[in-house]
Write a structure and sequence with these properties.
Serine Threonine Protein Phosphatase 5, Tetratricopeptide repeat, 27 helices
Length: 548
């Protein structure tokens, strides 16, 4: 007598799979709802039990119930029972275990489960299983900031789905592919991929992925400074998510993104208010209008934007409380911190940044930790400029800012997030250029590193910060009087050879500093002999170079 319950028939599992690959999500979830009672009696001895858990994990990831459901079902399959399962069931069980770990952002636990599934690709031969295992590993690698590998596994999963004729499922994977191109600064390619995926998925009821597409459009618009378009896309994303679940975790993510954009608009408005004050003050001195009515209107809108940002974050935090999503909660705390810092409340901003860092530290989330350190760097720089809590050692906050900037650089180097690395270099430069250090040479080195990393990309607030750093370098930099005279053709009675020698005494020490005080690197950079480098350094009275 078969121990296979009717609910776990091959036909039922085939129907679930067909609904999944065609993205007939409403129909598939209705099938699962009809059999929820099965979950209370599921037993490892049932035929297809492990396969069913694998399918359940796929549907929960899409939006059926919550990840805790799969975790509870897996608890009924103790380790000793695993050895009794057929290989097909065990592989599906491992996929489900990986999904639960991925949902908890435990990527180091999740990835080995997916690797196990992929190791048995020949024995299993199930394109859906193999496609999803590649895709989910790509998602885990994206969480870790390992974007190149993430793209490789994502496209591998996409190709398997396409070869099997599962275009709607492949379109889902293309959304992550688009995001990874976006992280590389290839926004046009990212938008092209999104549009192709959207054209396929518009024929389905996959509201979560359609929401993800609008969310991606919003992030691209935000990066390009099209803030109102970004808000509209995030609103569309939220509307799509709520069709699947009003409390879906991605609703919280889009609310946090919307709050960040509203903060950026508020900052632009504040700059306009400050500029108007200066302009109208000058006009009033000449007997013109003081423009108070217009400024009052701008201030009202400014406060409204901030209130809306806080409201969005409050709603996001309430949703995230239902999920073990430390990264999302950490992002909410960071956004709270930025809003408090903008308002001059450095103590509350510091508390939020510390909370975000602690959340990232729990899971070794280098991106979240780096973002938190950057916020702390900004806070300490604000304290330096405002001389808040100077105490007995005025340089304490400056050194803390320097430490936070360096920590951010080192943390983000564990990832491939070049945009965040550019942010870290920019704030390292702004710290060097602050009123305490005033080290313009070091600030310029950080600026050069930021420019090299960003590769001409001009993302939202990063661009503004880069321009501020550039202005500080140019404003505080000095041009050597000799170079200024030469640029005007004033060379006195010096020969060209003498000018060349004098130029060497100006440029070689500077290059030596930039090249880490290494003579061999200066010689290679300038294509001159190490002997000449040492002679010039000795001539200008520099300390003896360190041994190489």
């Amino acid at each position: 007598m078969s121990n296979r319950p009717p609910e776990l028939s091959d036909d039922f599992l085939a129907q679930l799979k067909e609904d999944l690959v065609c993205r007939r999500l409403g129909r598939g979830m209705a099938r699962l709802e009809e059999r929820l009672s099965l979950l209370t009696s599921l037993d490892p001895s049932h035929n297809n039990a492990g396969v069913f858990i694998g399918h359940l994990a796929l549907w929960v990831d899409i939006g059926f119930q919550r990840p805790g459901l799969v975790k509870d079902v897996l608890a009924r399959f103790p380790k000793p029972a695993h050895a009794q399962l057929p290989l097909r069931d065990y592989v599906h069980l491992r996929l489900a275990e990986g999904m639960v770990a991925m949902a908890e952002q435990a990527t180091e636990i999740a990835i080995p489960h997916f690797d196990f599934v992929l190791a048995f690709k020949d024995e299993v031969g199930d394109p859906v299983l193999l496609s999803i295992a590649n895709f989910w590993k790509g998602r885990c690698l994206r969480m870790k900031g390992e974007y190149d590998e993430a793209l490789a596994f994502t496209t591998a999963g996409r190709d398997i789905a396409m070869e099997a004729g599962y275009q709607p499922m492949a379109a889902v994977m293309r959304v992550l592919e688009s995001w990874l191109f976006f992280q590389r600064g290839k926004s046009k390619e990212a938008v092209r991929i999104l549009r192709e995926a959207e054209a396929v998925l518009r024929k389905t009821d996959d509201h979560v992925t359609l929401g993800n597409i609008h969310s991606s459009y919003g992030r691209i618009a935000r990066r390009e400074g099209r803030y109102q378009h970004a808000i509209e896309h995030f609103a569309d994303a939220i509307a799509e998510y709520k069709q699947r679940d009003p409390q879906h975790r991605n609703v919280a993510r889009s609310l946090a993104n919307m709050a960040y954009v509203k903060r950026l608009i508020a900052l632009q408005l504040r700059k306009k208010i400050d500029a108007d004050v200066v302009r109208h003050r000058k006009a009033a001195a000449r007997g013109g209008s003081n423009g108070r009515a217009a400024r009052a209107q701008h201030r009202t809108r400014f406060e409204q934007l901030r209130d809306e940002a806080f409201a969005a974050l409050n709603e996001a935090a309430a949703i995230y409380e239902q999920y073990p999503n430390y990264h999302g909660i950490g992002s909410v705390h960071l956004n709270y911190g930025y809003l408090h810092l903008d308002n001059g409340d450095v103590e509350r901003a510091d508390t939020e940044a510390a909370t975000a860092f602690a959340l990232g530290e729990q899971k070794k989330d280098y991106i979240l930790m780096a973002r938190a350190r950057l916020l702390q760097c900004m806070i300490e720089n604000a304290r330096v400029e405002e001389e808040i809590g100077a105490g007995a050692e005025p340089g304490n906050h400056a050194r803390l800012a320097q430490d936070c900037a360096q920590d951010a650089v080192e943390l983000v180097k564990h990832t491939q997030d070049r945009r965040l690395l550019a942010d870290a270099y920019i704030w390292q430069g702004l710290t060097y250029a602050n009123s305490f250090f005033g080290d313009i040479d070091a600030a310029r080195r950080s600026y050069d590193l930021a420019v090299g990393v960003s590769k001409g990309d001009n993302p939202d607030s990063t661009w503004d910060d880069m321009q501020i750093l550039k202005a500080k370098i140019l404003r505080k930099g000095t041009v050597d009087p000799t170079l200024r005279a030469w640029s005007q053709g004033s060379v006195g009675d010096k020969t060209f050879q003498q000018i060349t020698e004098e130029f060497a005494t100006l440029i070689i020490p500077k290059v030596w500093e930039r090249e880490g005080r290494k003579v061999s690197r200066v010689a290679a950079r300038l294509s001159i002999s190490p002997k000449k480098v040492r002679r010039i350094l000795s001539q200008v009275g520099r300390r003896k170079p360190s041994p190489e």
